[in-house]
Amino acid sequence: MIPASFDYSAPNTLEEALKLLQEIGDEAKILAGGHSLIPMMKLRFAEPEHLVDLNNIPGLSEVSMNGDTLTIGAMAREVDVEDSEEVAKVFPIFKDAAKLIADPQVRNFGTLGGNLAHGDAANDQPAVMLALNADLEITGLDGARTVGIDEFFYGFYMTAIQEGEILTKITIPVPSGKVGNAYHKLERKVGDYATAGVAVQLVLDADGTCISAGIGLTNVNATPLRAERSEQALVGTKVDDAAIEAAAQAASEDCNPSSDLRGSEDYKRRVVKTITKRMIAKALERANA
Question: What is the pTM of this model?
Answer without folding.
Answer: 0.94
